[in-house]
């Protein structure tokens, strides 16, 4: 019987080791680094956010330290909770019978570490652990300590290995990412077909899960109940439901429970900042957090320090160097944000948080508009890029808000972001505008500018929708005598004519836009863009007129501070020069235009078109289909 029990025990250990090896996929480099640290330091701490695999990595490293004739003693967090001093007593009890105890063998007096004390997940007793570890290291020169925690102890001779989420992007050779490899290994036979489409969906799931190993393993285990397609949709809408009936660690039975274990470590003020900041959908700075989190017992000056404390527990991730010259920026992982949003709802603060987020986004849009209109277009685009997750969140929320004023506010915000949509984000802008327009009365003042912008974004991909939108707003623009809107309607009609292959009609429409538009306009394109489009439309039939139009576009006042319009005019002139046989002049103009590093940020389509033209001029290849100036997407 004893022999059979020993065989069963050996088999269980082998199974556990196999599961551990599977879970360490993507952590091979970190394991090697940890073993190296253990060979040269007496105190090593593995830190990282919840569910990143600290305990597993520490456990494997500790077990693989046994061949070096170390005795491994483990104390885990359930034993360390309870009355004051329980952790100290648990460590003392665990060390009984080792070379460090008073009745231990004399071998403990040999040189070199003989006992490895593995203290797993000591965050609930972090402060007590500092003193206990310091005393034991001082009194026992042969002791070595390995710790897993969300933050270091802070002792002077401590070596720290910081774990982060697994990479979710594919490797350079095209092989699956470490996160995807962990998912596939955990799924095993539950995922039989592993074609490129399947692997791509696995990559998407891992990216949604922020590369967190615990979430990835729990998600892969769900393939016994859900298809891969259904699983991808489920994790997109939430992660707290992910669970396992047979977890390695009790606190890892679900994502909800794992995050909740960290919640118990936070002070009431940290919890309030956590829940209030969870309304921010993407990376955010201190200023946004102060606006969202201040109130009640939280004063504005307290918020930055509380953010730092949350980051030390892995609940926030730094998006930039926290010690750099800029404002610290943070990102809350999806599982942590989901947990915080539920607490925010339970506290009855969700509506207030939503309004504050909307106010923050309105400030961002106002500042970005100001930057764009006053010659700082690159900064405007970068500002919106930094806040695009929150901007998208308020637009999505408005689509579910029954209040008409919420729809109007979101529609106005989407319209004011016209420069963002036409710099490479036309599909998303068109989708939001069409959905919001369907909820807004046609006679509302916000509807006409939004319909014009939607028509502009749809001019190339969906001319029929664009024409329908323009027909809806043209009578009102005529009755109101709104020359700016009439010019923009004519411009979009001209773009549709070009798309449909009628450059003569397009030229007439662009000329109308040039005549109608005032000298100074905001909130959309001006005369320089219309003249560039006119030059493009006439380049084949009237090359001299096209050349004059392009020169006139570049001569428009204020163009020096409007790189987006300037790049379109410069592209039109270089293209006309090329088609008129002036290749050298076209090369010079195109090369000067793309030499400005900021042009690729605020005018990506024109920048790419100029680079394509340079390639044609350099290689002598056939001219590709030219890009239409002013046509978004």
TrEMBL record:
Q: Which InterPro entries match?
A: P-loop_NTPase, TPR-like_helical_dom_sf
Source organism, top-level taxon: Bacteria
Name under which the protein is recorded: AAA+ ATPase domain-containing protein
